[in-house]
Every structure is written in structure tokens, then in C-alpha cells.
Design a protein that fits this description.
Blueprint: E1 2-7, H1 13-22, E2 29-34, H2 36-45, E3 58-60, E4 78-84, H3 86-93, H4 100-110, E5 114-119, H5 126-138, E6 141-142, H6 156-171
Parallel strand pairs: 1-2, 1-4, 2-3, 4-5, 5-6
Helix pairs in contact: 1-6, 3-5
């Protein structure tokens, strides 16, 4: 699979980090883009302010259109924005495409490719709710970063992984450790 994984400035850099850790980089081509605010959040939320990028990840700036996935003629399977700020979601809903992340999201929608937006902000105002409806009607999957508790997670990582498992499921990627209701004792 050819994937784009992007992060924006909402709190939740750990979701981005854990998703990258769970994707087999030998099996999949993964392109990564971080917004300027995402870099700031990483610095504030992750130990030492560093992302641990798996070997094989292809990095891109959020200030270029010279990347393959911002063109509809290049085949990519899916894009995940994790975490996705409501500001980013709103700009996607409005069709604004002036950064690499926004242009890529626009292309994925117009080409009817899988676009997963992991919204991390709460509470929502009416504008947020209408933007969620707009991107959903346009074909995106809005997957709020709402962890589940029925697996009884004991660590922050286990709690985060309840959301990451949902992302992997939406992508059609395996997650052998995922808790599945009524399948797991």
C-alpha cells in the first residue's frame, strides 16, 4: 500500500507516533508530512521532542507541491491526518489547498481515495459539526480520537492503541494485538 500520514497542530502526537510504529514499512510505502504546528506539538508532547521515525519513511515538507501525492495522476491508496485539528478539517471542507497536507487531502477527495481525518479536538462548535458533515459528504472518514475502555487498557500506549487499531482497520491493515469486542476474552 502507498500511504500518506500527516500530522497537524492538535494535541495527540502520540497517535501519529504509534500509527507509524504499527505499519510494516517493509510492506508499505509511507510518506510523512508534518505541519509547522504539528512539530511544535511533538516538541511539547513527546519525550525529548523527537518523533521516532521508522526506517523507510519518506519525509516531505508541508510547503511544497513537488511531491507525488498532490497530483491525481499518481496512485496512492490512502491518507491519514492524525491528529487532525478542526482548523485543518475546516480548510479541507472549504477546499483550501495551499499547503502540502491540504492539497493532498483535496486530491484524495477528488480522486475518491480513502481519506481518514482523526479529529482530536473537543468540544465542537456548530461550525466544526458542519465541517465534519461536509468532509463526510465529500467522502472522508472522520474518526475522532475517542479511545475505548472495554479492553481495560492499563497504560497510555494501550489507550492510544485503541484508536490506532481503528485507523489500521479503516486502512485494511493488520493489527494482531487489537481487541475486538466479543472476539477476545
Amino acid at each position: 500500500m502507498k500511504l500518506v500520514i500527516a500530522a497537524t497542530g492538535a494535541s495527540g502526537a502520540i497517535y501519529f507516533q504509534r500509527l507509524l510504529e504499527k505499519i510494516d514499512m517493509k510492506e508499505h510505502e509511507v510518506h510523512v508530512v508534518l505541519s509547522a504546528f504539528a512539530r511544535q506539538v511533538v516538541h511539547e508532547e513527546l519525550d525529548g521532542g523527537k518523533l521516532m521515525m521508522p526506517e523507510g519513511v519518506i519525509h516531505h515538507s508541508d510547503k511544497t507541491m513537488n511531491v507525488p501525492f498532490v497530483s491525481g495522476s499518481t496512485r496512492f491508496d490512502a491518507m491519514v491526518v492524525v491528529p487532525c485539528s478542526m482548523g485543518t478539517l475546516g480548510r479541507i471542507a472549504a477546499g483550501i489547498a495551499d499547503t502540502t497536507i491540504l492539497r493532498a487531502a483535496d486530491v484524495f477527495l477528488k480522486e475518491r481515495r480513502k481519506l481518514i481525518l482523526v479529529a482530536r479536538e473537543t468540544p465542537w462548535n456548530l461550525i466544526h459539526a458542519r465541517n465534519v458533515v461536509a468532509v463526510t459528504e465529500a467522502g472522508a472518514v472522520v474518526l475522532p480520537a475517542s479511545p475505548s475502555f472495554y479492553s481495560r487498557p492499563c497504560t497510555v500506549e494501550e489507550l492510544v492503541d485503541t484508536v490506532v487499531s481503528r485507523i489500521l482497520s479503516q486502512l485494511g491493515l493488520p493489527d494482531p494485538g487489537a481487541y475486538r469486542w466479543a472476539e477476545t476474552e
